[in-house]
């Protein structure tokens, strides 16, 4: 629990609760019909947005962090790998976009874990609503964060000289695919958020999964330079498929295979981890 | 769901199908690893009343409430809320109950209004209805001024209020209050009590857990005393008190020298040993058996003391407090591991306490 509020002395001035006004309230209530799963998920999504409004610092991970990533990797590897930073940026930016957004999905798990620690989760779980809606709500809120993150990175990229051939349509299609994938991928973290005890362990596990998953891909370098066994992994990684698809879309192509693979992975992850998440949620 | 809003209509509905009890559990068990947190609890909570569940920390109160509120699955036994099984008809049960847990069960990052509007929406109110209801609740709970502030900046008493307000957003048929006044100052505690009384007056059944005996005494009509995961006593306040014995008479004499003599007189009249208080002028003794004839016995004590020329400045006769009941009951359950000798020692000690 947080430290005693500085406003504590106000208790003395708190107006007493009058039995009459309360009774009037209790009696006048009419129970509305049960809301739909969509309505409750949207209500939870709105909660996530309100939290961003009250604690805007939490947008650091979708603003400062991605900017840092683009700058760092472009100037660090650009000259060595592609002759010049600007050339490298054309292939790197979609990749680094994928990496950053996939990485910040882990904050979903942290948010779930923090909520469990507080009592608010108990209240949600005793409501007669569609069971997955609190989780879906988190993810809806997170999709907004992913969109903000993407916008920030693309802006920085454009300033630095990123010139996607797919134009606005291609870029938007790429971002849309990325956000859909991230929505599904986040279910991995809702699971860990429910499974692990502290938010630190959620962070720890996420890093253990995300670092290899994002680095062992075609984001930074051409997989052809890697040893065979690693190529096998890299070629089948969902992050590689997603990166190729986003790159392709932004470059003005229509990489149907890669898009299908990305969506397939997304669907599979969603089904598997979504099911486990809901099992844990119901049992917790 | 019934929508008739007249008082009688609601009360009938609250009584549950066929006027059955609000909660019925039999042999409820929950284990966490090796510990049996709840070890076969049987409860019957009549509808429309405040039912107190009393016990020390770790007795299994919260675990029981969490099972009844569908937050935990029981490992054994059965529990029904208004006739609906908490395991197999969890969703129906969720529609009837509300829980105010030990920790603030609202979102601390959101403002009071935002919290209540969110809940209103989740319970199916339209945008406008949710706003309206939230405003009314904040007003009734004296929180209008704090409506736009984040809950994390609320004081303890305000948090409790917003918590309870959230729980009665849709007037529930059964309200769980898990240690609602733990950590509150006496003033805020009294206000929470007032709220509970108002809620139950409208026909909602309240299950209240507490470790404070005066709280159960103030609010509950029936009380179950829980220790180590089992119910060790159950009944009305009067029954519980009567089960422990009569009351206590407190005497304050004018002269300290007369205390020895007074103690002697007391044991003569009452047949029990009087206990000497730290105050050199005061002494106390238990009177009455099962609450009967306590006043009569006390009267005889006074008469006898007067006859012996002992001046009594102050006199009071008290019912056993629930504290005494509680200590006596939890004491009894630990008795088996003590030898007969120990038990005698304990008995004396208990009298000394009384």
Automatic annotation (TrEMBL), chain A:
Biological process terms in GO annotation: response to antibiotic
InterPro entries recorded: ABC2_TM (IPR013525), ABC2_TM_bact-type (IPR047817), ABC_2_transport (IPR000412), T7SS_ABC-Transporter (IPR051328)
Protein's UniProt keywords contain Membrane: yes
One GO cellular component, as annotated: ATP-binding cassette (ABC) transporter complex
Keyword Electron transport: no
Record domain ABC transmembrane type-2: where: 57-284
Positions of transmembrane segments: 59-80, 92-114, 135-162, 168-189, 201-221, 259-281
Subcellular location: Cell membrane
Annotated keywords: Antibiotic resistance, Cell membrane, Membrane, Transmembrane, Transmembrane helix, Transport
Bilayer topology term: Multi-pass membrane protein
PANTHER family, sorted: DOXORUBICIN RESISTANCE ABC TRANSPORTER PERMEASE PROTEIN DRRB (PTHR43077:SF8), TRANSPORT PERMEASE YVFS-RELATED (PTHR43077)
Protein family: Belongs to the ABC-2 integral membrane protein family.
Protein name (record): Transport permease protein
High-level lineage: Bacteria, Bacillati, Actinomycetota, Actinomycetes, Kitasatosporales
